[in-house]
Amino acid sequence: KFYRTAVRPAILYGTECWAVKSQHENKVGVAEMRMLRWMCGKTRQDKIRNEAIRERVGVAPIVEKMVENRLRWFGHVERRPVDSVVRRVDQMERRQTIRGRGRPKKTIREVIKKDL
Predict the structure, then answer these.
(1) Separation CA 38–CA 55 (nearest Å)
(2) Which domain of life is it from (predicted)?
């Protein structure tokens, strides 16, 4: 119960508006599993599967909660009036600036499109 009321909200704080990379999702998932194993008194050396520990504790994967929170936030933003600040910022295009080599940065729109 402490995990759901204190730990998980602290981990998920602000994730609804992140443009989350899979690398971030992996790190958050690893941190969650370390805490769950610690709560159960188990270590990785005990070779217990993550699904078994989650089932024992009774929690869903934190990545699913991140997606759920992101879609909930997107729904709130979409219901706002068109002239509200949040909607205007969401509709703005990125400035054309000089950027480094490689793939363009992932935007929150792309993340939400993937979640839908």
Answers:
(1) 15
(2) Eukaryota
